[in-house]
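Troubleshooting log. The previous run stalled partway through. Resubmitting the same two chains, unchanged.
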Amino acid sequence: MEIETLDIEGIAVVAPAGRIDSNTAAEAEAAIMPLFATARAIVIDFGKLSYISSAGLRVLLIAAKASKSRNVPLVLCGLSKPVHDVLRMGNFTKLFAIHEDRTRAVLALARPAG
Amino acid sequence: MDAGTRILICAGERVDHAGRTGVFAPSLVPAVAEALADCVAQAGKVIAYCSASAGADILFGEAVLARGGTLNIVLPCEIGDFLAQYVEPAGEDWVDRFHRLLTRAERVEISCEERLLGDDTLVRFNNQVLQGLARLDGDRLQVETHLVIVCNLAVPPEPGSPTDFMDQWPEVDRLVLIDLDEFGADTPPDPTAWIDLPTRAEPATPRAIRAIMFADIASYTTTFRDDQGPLLWDFVAAAQAHIAEQAKAPILINAWGDGIHAAAESAHDLADYAAALMNGVAAIDPAGFGLAARPRFRIALHAGPVFVGTHPLTGDGMIYGHHVNRAARIEPVALAGQIYASRHFVALLRAEMDARACEARMTSETYIARYRADLVGRVELPKQFGQETVYRLNDLGLRHARPDKPGRPSDSGALALTIAGRLSEIPRLADTVDTFCTHNRLEPSVAYAVNLALDELLTNTISYGYDNASEHEIEVTMSVEDGNLVVSVRDDAVAFDPSVPPEPELDADLEDRRVGGLGVYFVHTLMDAVRYQRVDDHNELTLVKQAAAATQED
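Second attempt completed without errors. Output:
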């Protein structure tokens, strides 16, 4: 799968494209997890993600746990309706701040949390 | 599908005779014959279903044969009784025509192989069998089924009359009504004279149409040793809790050992009970009760007119007669874990579906059939009971009508696909499912749901289900049936039953959250029914999704 990553003033943006399923979950995990050691905050941009299964949610859960233990804020953005529905079905929407798009996500992280 | 073929059912009034006048005067016979001939001529290639009373039935049958159509005759009782009751009073000429018609019909069958005993119940049941058989034929050939009614609207309906038949017909645009009143009867109907005279005496022993069930636990004596007996009954008691929740109790039920005999007033009531019995047994883990194997019922369903009464020794209700015995003979041919049904049960069920569709339309709802009958074939019954055409009843797990939506999923073929037991096959399968759903005008959300469910299940199977490194295959089939997307998956992995919904802790704190069990939980959330059975060392899974079609605006 294609995974775009970039750095915006210390905020890491990672944007997987296509599907996160049992085939690609390991790849997504490998792209996201090292960022907790380098970035001060992380945005996972699902704008180009068409599909996610419970294998993808597993990656998100590991990331959420790392975010808490390492004190690195993690937000999601760009969720299509089907992807959002899967997160909601797994009751995952409570675990993350979810923003409409990348701009809003980065702006939210750039400001001190209020 | 043959666009040129049409199924016609005819329910027609009898021609007047000395004991019954004012409905269908003999002088109208040529005009009615002409109207029926026109009606048959417009239908193209005809497969027809009717009874053969003197009057409109015989005229219709003659019109069908004259056009080279296929004629199926269903009579409510033995031919001798039928002739005496419904043909001979009209005269010798009609008796000759009756015999000529029966000789040239493709098939003649009798819905109750007993004497009539003067019972309108039989005629009504015969109408339901006629309707159900014709509908099953229409479903199988995927052609339209139309009802032709010849009646006199000036005469009030009675049970089993053509007007009564018409009231049970769901498709008003597929109804041809020939009203004898409009042919300008020479004499206006005499409201006191149309009733059969003299009035028949009430039969001494009342008869009623009943759906009848016989069931037992397959390989009961060989699988469950004597010391497992108490465990087995504990298991069945737990199943009963599920059954009582899912279906109403039959109006009559008796059991001895592992055998069960039950009866209900409608085919649907009994099908619901049989399905609840199957589901109840499937919902419980036999290991939790110390049982080595899951007890599996084999169930046979039949329907017909039976005698009803009270057993003098027990004081309990009972039913008896030819059809009760016949139902008992069907049970041994049923396979474990399956519901078998006779031709007449399936016909009655199909006719009831029409009646339910009628009711749903009155309240602007769309009726969704819960059951689908798949033909097994003609089987020899034990104890010289002759042959029976049996069907396997599939529970699609749908219980409620839903609000009407524009556009309906179209039934355009089925998909069958074999994939290798590798994770990399899942995206390929997803593409095929998407194409299938688009082709069938299903909403994208349906495709997404089915893909997610399949992904979760196949990922489990492929990741944890193979205990050797050899190549494995997984068969996936898909079809749209009555507005439901039905998916089946068959694999040779270790036994795994995902039909029991897991209860993942969705509200746990972040630290305690786990993803295990989430996949199967998704499957149950997304699908309307999940059914599992282990057959010949294979897992067989059926998923059903109610599938509203994509609307025009999409």
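Takeaways: Chain A touches chain B at residues 19, 21-23, 51, 53-55, 57-58, 61, 64-65, 68, 82, 86, 89-91, 95 (CB under 8 Å). Chain A has a mean pLDDT of 92.
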